[in-house]
Write a structure and sequence with these properties.
mainly alpha; two-stranded antiparallel sheet; about 70% helix; globular
């Protein structure tokens, strides 16, 4: 797949992020009272995602589709880099903004992994340790530099181990 082929999926990727965010708002994971998802930033982050996916496919010599752990990691990295969850009224509550971007990133990554094996991801998310894992991952994404390769390993581990 070329960059143009991958960029052809841009609308689908933007819609996936918007959908995931709307679900998170509906279930109370995100506070949409003072924050919103900036679709222009989402568009930029998806462009970045498309370029990174082309690079990853080239680096790892992937001819067909990249596995879901790689795709999820690239998307999580792009969301964390561009931070599309922004304040509506210019008033920044850093806890909600940062938590919002990390929450969107993690759930978007899990949703992408579920494309390959929904039952496995559901089992993982319903396990007793999910909340602890989620909070630790959120902390790391917010407070530490974490490379796309490391994020790939996190999602690959979820796919590999039966939790």
């Amino acid at each position: 797949m070329t960059f143009e082929d991958i960029k052809g999926t841009k609308v689908k990727r933007v819609e996936q992020i918007v959908y995931t965010t709307n679900v998170l708002i509906a279930i109370g994971e995100l506070d949409a009272t003072n924050y919103t998802l900036d679709k222009k930033i989402v568009s930029k982050l998806v462009d970045h995602y498309c370029r990174e996916l082309v690079n990853i496919k080239d680096w790892y010599n992937i001819k067909d589709k990249a596995n879901t752990a790689k795709v999820a990691a690239i998307m999580v990295s792009a969301i964390i880099r561009f931070r599309p969850w922004i304040p509506k009224y210019g008033k920044i509550d850093s806890e909600n903004r940062y938590n919002g971007n990390e929450i969107i990133a993690i759930y978007q990554g899990l949703a992408l992994c579920a494309v390959e094996n929904k039952n496995h991801v559901d089992r993982f998310m319903n396990s007793k340790k999910f909340d602890k894992w989620f909070n630790m991952f959120k902390f790391v994404l917010r407070n530490r530099y974490i490379s796309t390769d490391v994020i790939m390993l996190v999602f690959e581990t979820i796919k590999t181990f039966d939790i």
